[in-house]
Amino acid sequence: MGLYSNKFFSSFTSASSWFEVYAAFSTIMMLFRTAINDLIPHQFRSFIASKLEAFFSKYQANSNVSVKINQFWDENVGERNELFDAALAYLPTQISHTYKSLKVGRLQNRKHLELAVDGSEDVVEEFEGIKFTWKLDEGSKEESNNNSRRYNFLLTFDEKHRQRVLDRYLPHVLKTFETMKDQRRIVKLYSRLDDYWNESELSHPATFDSLALCPELKKDIIDDLARFLRRKDLYKKVGKPWKRGYLLYGPPGTGKSSLIAAMANYLKFDVYDLELSSIYSNSDLMRSMKEASNRCIVVIEDIDCNKEVHARSKPNGASDDRDSDSDSEDPKMRSKRFTLSGLLNYMDGLWSSGGEERIIIFTTNHKEKIDPALLRPGRMDMHIHLSFLKGKAFRILASNYLDVKGDHPLFQQIDDLLEKIQVTPAVVGEQLMRYEDPDVCLEKLVQFLKQKGKDSDSE
């Protein structure tokens, strides 16, 4: 028996013997497959295959995992989760024609139609061969604050792709969201009311083309903004927060608010209008600024009207009673209220690291009343004096209000009058709205300016 076995196996040592076995096996499999195809209909074979697949997958270990993406990262301070906002905007763009549960509408004061998932149906997407399932879910009562709704997304995927989700997919969602915002950027205006930011759309139409500013000053501002935007790496290299401060000062009606709107529309930055009178402590200031997004303009208007930012010294060495009281105040009580040092720390101190690519704008009618500590470079980097109307800026107003391009016979007379009197763009703009006929309007403006000059001489 042993000798027979050795001879049997030794006969397979040649390559030709192995080929004969392979050919015989292939022939048998072909005959078997042909018999099945002839005897069993295609529909019945597909039915059996689907049932077998469902049977085995039912008992196969489930390797799917879900991650929760909350609407707010920290409920206590109301800090939004940018990844939630990104998913909310990103998913409607990925929904195929088979998705039948999509909300569409136009919100008040919005220019475009809005698309959104409504939570009644999962959104399934495939990215780089990986299947992802998104579900919008309303949070539990414990996750809600002040009876307001809080939502979250549940993202489900195969656990073996965990690292690719973190390294590739979620960054892809965020990057797509940023591109969408740049392409269809709606500038928002946030006003702080009762410890939270109230959101609305910034509808101010001002642009640098429409601003009644001296062309040289306008160019300086635009160049400075463009230089700031492209210097992210330089700020990081020298160890400075990526922020820039502007001080807008001048008489009322010289266009400070219009300039802020023009800067926001030019940069596509949201505007956060911060009333210092609504800030009760340094920690309150830090929390408010932490809630503000990156790529924004923080506006603090009429800063000279806040007692904490007045100059801390009087002429001839006279002391300020308010500062004396502040010095004698209990340190614990002082730390609980809003102080100038808190504002300075936000601008360029340790607290300034919260938020990037931000513009900080102070406005004032009385620059001399502001504490010099606020005015130095690094805090207020560019001081912009918005003064009374002159000839070059008037040409822009005439174009905006009257559609008068080029020259006009009355322009030189108006230029001469503007050199002699002090009048703001707001006052002249109001005069230009009173008559529709350009010639009549300019004649009336000449009369108005002459009378204003007489009134000034008589005072």
UniProtKB/TrEMBL annotation:
Stretches for region Disordered: 310-333
Keywords: ATP-binding, Hydrolase, Magnesium, Nucleotide-binding
Any one Gene Ontology BP term: response to stress
Taxonomy, superkingdom: Eukaryota
Cofactor(s) required for function per UniProt: Mg(2+)
Family (UniProt): Belongs to the AAA ATPase family. BCS1 subfamily.
PANTHER family: BCS1 AAA-TYPE ATPASE
Name of the molecule in the record: AAA+ ATPase domain-containing protein
UniProt organism field: Phaseolus vulgaris
Upper taxonomic lineage: Eukaryota, Viridiplantae, Streptophyta, Embryophyta, Tracheophyta
